[in-house]
Write the structure tokens for this entry.
Amino acid sequence: MNEDFILVTEGLSKEFGGFSAVKNVNLKVRRGAIHALIGPNGAGKTTCFNMLTKFLNPSGGRIFYDGRDITALKPAEVARLGLVRSFQISAVFPHLTALENVRVALQRQRGDSFDFWRSKSVLNRLNGRARELLADVGLADFADTIAVEMSYGRKRALEIATTLALEPKVLLLDEPMAGMGHEDVDRIAALIKRASANRTVLMVEHNLQVVAHLSDVITVLTRGQVLAEGDYATVSNNAEVRQAYMGVGHG
């Protein structure tokens, strides 16, 4: 297994009652890269993602993470290995503050569960790290804001902060820019760039423009199969890729 690649699939496939949602996908995610998995709606991106994070079992093929076959592992087991997923639907506690949300994630990372009985000194140590993570995602001024009162884009930034609290080696993002306006898209793109400084990022996205200047490698899926792969210039100039997006636009 080539050590340059941290996440590799061989012949990954998934059938639902005779329908092939994903067919023979060979994916190689380079260590330290931002890799985007894109394609029109219904291309099989989310099914692929769910198999990588073990929320779905493949019908065929194998998944390797850091040289280890993880095909048979459970979601919690791959998360403990450092393959951590941020959910498409915001997964924060709505009635806790931003700081409290990140602190809960830090407690989980330490294996302390929800140990609110802990001494004040331990909680204060967590507060320091929590504030660092909030600053990393541009939320330093929102530490005491209740999550439900935050804008959609800031909620997504908070969700990424809670995911980073788990210290992932590979950060898996499921349509992190979905439903955002231009300003929020730019902010989250910059945040993903920062988050990738010492880790690998794999993101599912359907909008080619969103990943254009963010991704090192783009894999285009259509009808469950890999259509093209390469940098933005390579895939955006591919006639088959343009054809796949015809009629569905870039939205």
User: Anything to note?
Assistant: The radius of gyration is 19 Å.
